Amino acid sequence: MPMMTAEEIRSHPGRFVKLRLAEPRARENFPFGGNPPEGIHPNCATDFTTYLTTIPFDSHLCCSVFINLTSVHPSSPFFVFSAAGVAHDETSSLVEAVWHAPISEVGTVPLPCRLPRLAFEVEGLGLDEGVEVDVENDSELVIDNENFYDHHKLGGGAYFYQAGDAVVELAHALCKDGFHHHFQLAFPGPNDADVDCNWPFGEYVFHVFARPCNDRWELRFVWS
Question: What spatial distance separates the first Cα and last Cα of the chain, rounded to whole Å?
Fold first, then answer.
């Protein structure tokens, strides 16, 4: 079953691709953890820099996401829980996106921190019925977060582990500004492969929002 492109996700509010974390194959187009793709590196590395995943946008473009986060050092400026519920852009010191063409080869240069090497596998398609469209502004409106699919997915509506008024209003604001919900990463569940690590977001759900910007996409990162 093929992935949905970013344009397809944007054109079909609420529709999503259901994902699970699986053992990687020799050549992987939607990897998670391990080393980043060959030749792809973050511009700025810290003691906490970790390669998270490479997210497809279409057959010619994807972005590798690196995080600089810790869940065990509360006094650190990279403490994950202090930065929750905020929209981080691509200038953030906590999250970095590197755009590139699809690369199936895995690099050999390790980063300071490392998640187990896995890959996302498509489980099927779904529909979050709480997503509606603001026709006047041609954007999504998040209506019913509680009934959204709560695990890994491309597209659909943004499900938050801590769905307080502030973070739901933040999702509304992003969508009114022309962003769509593109990717969701949740705490590993029983259908995922074994993930033996200190999960970087605790029980929070990590999100990527995207909107068109010239020949690529402008991104916002939120976890809550």
Answer: 30
- Helix H or strand E segment including 126: strand 118-127
* pLDDT tens for each residue of 140-196: 555 556 789 999 999 999 999 987 889 888 998 998 899 999 999 999 999 999 998
Contact call for residues 119 and 32 (beta carbons, < 8 A): yes
Residue showing tokens 């054109």? 11
DSSP 1-52: -PPPPHHHHHHSTTEEEEEEEE---SS-SSEESSSPBTT---SS--TTEEEE
Q: Which element (helix H / strand E) includes 170?
A: helix 165-176
Query: Strand locations in 38-114, DSSP E?
Result: 49-58, 61-68, 95-100
Q: Tell me the two tokens of residue 59.
A: 């057959």
* Assessment of whether the complete model's pTM goes beyond 0.85: yes
